[in-house]
């Protein structure tokens, strides 16, 4: 927003705070537009209707000039008004003399009119029928499914080449991504996991305290965190943090044509860029899950000791008795699945990003949404399978 200091001091504060317009006519019939007051954004500026009414009055004006002697201040609000009345004058064939305007206003108006709007550049809204909308959605779904299938296939082939020792990736990149996915994610995992443990313990304490069974808060928090919540919360955190970062990194490389350069050099982008991220997140997620389980149990312990007056040793013993190895391994398995899904979602959106800066933001957002949806859906599937097989 352009802003300029007041051109002329006025003793009346009201005159400086409001923008006003008046019309006069010179002896040769020129319409003089007098602008006074403060013409800045936030002030109620007059519309172009007053000018249209003045132009209809006889005698009809052929020239228009400006008088800004009483102008107290201006910014882009004045420029917007001048562009509006300039369009009116162009439509009515009236010549406009801008010499009466401040020098800064004249320069900005000249700059604004230097490159006229290209005809046909403005997109016109198009209405499509309901049937056409369904057809476009179906085509988009088929196209998206094909992209996902191709990408998963390429990732699987790259992993097979890695197992056979033929994949081309840099160990330094893998270690850097492991550090980014693991150690640097610990603060946010700690905070969220402790809070989730606190919430679980609070919710359980309210009901269990009624029956005098508050000691079972340890069971509730232990089983809930180890079996489900630790893996889910770690997965959601990594989807929002690491999955979005993967999409943004690869999307930026797509915009800068770095991925095209890799293809030109005969290097597979999936092997060189996607595979290290996939391996790093698949390795780090189980470790983050164990850490999140521990932090969640500590959060429940804080509520049990601080609110329910439970003994620390008693709380830990109940937790150890309640949590089985099956619960632990189910949580670890879920976290590994989440790691693969989050990495695939982030890399997929990044590799299929468009060529503009806004496409990078869209890819990051889509990666987060896709990752969280995949986590929820896979959690439901794994939970049903565990219930069916009785573990």
Question: What do these coordinates show?
Answer:
By secondary structure, the protein is of the alpha/beta class. Helices cover 68% and strands 7% of the residues. The chain has helices spanning 13-17, 49-56, 76-92, 103-114, 130-163, 171-181, 186-208, 217-255, 258-264, 269-306, 312-322, 325-351, 357-389; strands at 19-25, 31-39, 63-67, 71-74, 95-97. It is elongated, with a radius of gyration of 33 Å.
Q: Which regions have little confidence, pLDDT < 50, spanning 5+ residues?
A: 1-11
Percent helix range: 55-70%
Spatial shape: elongated
The SSE order reads HEEHEEHEHHHHHHHHHH
Instruction: Give the biggest sheet.
Output: 5 strands, mixed
Please, what is the average pLDDT? Answer: 86
Structural class: alpha/beta
Q: What is the number of E strands?
A: 5
Write the layout of secondary structure elements.
Layout: H1 13-17, E1 19-25, E2 31-39, H2 49-56, E3 63-67, E4 71-74, H3 76-92, E5 95-97, H4 103-114, H5 130-163, H6 171-181, H7 186-208, H8 217-255, H9 258-264, H10 269-306, H11 312-322, H12 325-351, H13 357-389
What's this, in brief?
The chain is an alpha/beta fold and about 400 residues long. The protein is built from 13 helices and 5 strands.
Entry keywords:
single chain, alpha/beta, 13 helices, elongated, disordered N terminus
